[in-house]
Amino acid sequence: MTQWLSAVRERVTWQTGLLVLVLVALLVVAGQRALAWQDERQRATDEKDAAAAATAEVEGLIEVSGATSEQDLDKLLDGATAEFRAELEAQADRLRKALSKNKVTATGDVVSTGVVKLEDGRATVIVAATGTVENDQTAKAEPRNYRLRVDLQQDDDRWLVSGLEFVA
């Protein structure tokens, strides 16, 4: 009987050890999957937020009009990093005067966006937009198509534009 009890103890100990090992392995795999899922969810959120910030800035840019240029440019400046804001501010007065003098009225909408790069709090978004421009030298509003590359930088919970370039 003692021999049988000893054999049962060895078997239970070995089986228990194996069970504990399997449970630990399952917990490790579950933890890795949870972290990967959380990272992927954060990346998707960052892509969505970066695309939304790029959309807002591009729509603000292509809708700058003479009558509302003060408010329009203030919105653009609000969505820009300090460095890009300084570049915009350096040209703002000249732009306001030209828009007002030529009685420019512009409208526009973003048609599509695509995040082409996202890493370390920086993003690059390609934006396609359409719009119209009318001024004192045109008989009617003229259609426009725009393609822009927008560079963004994450600042706490906001994505701010750090560069903007028209592309072909």
Describe how the helices and strands are arranged.
Blueprint (H helix, E strand, L loop, with lengths): L1 H61 L6 H10 L3 H20 L3 E15 L2 E13 L7 E14 L2 E9 L2
Antiparallel strand pairs: 1-2, 2-3, 3-4
Helix pairs in contact: 2-3
Which regions have little confidence, pLDDT < 50, spanning 5+ residues?
none
User: What portion of residues is helical?
Assistant: 40-55%
Total number of β-strand segments? Answer: 4
* Strand percent estimate: 25-35%
Name the helix and strand elements from N-terminus to C-terminus, one letter apiece: HHHEEEE
Please give the order of strands in the largest beta sheet.
1-2-3-4
CATH fold label of one domain: Nuclear Transport Factor 2, Chain: A
Provide the CATH top-level class of one domain: Alpha Beta
| Oligomeric assembly | single chain
Q: How would you state the average pLDDT, rounded? A: 90
Shape: rod-shaped
- What is the number of helices? 3
Rg calc: 29 Å
Keywords: Membrane
Organism: Nocardioides immobilis
Protein name: Mce-associated membrane protein
Subcellular location: Membrane
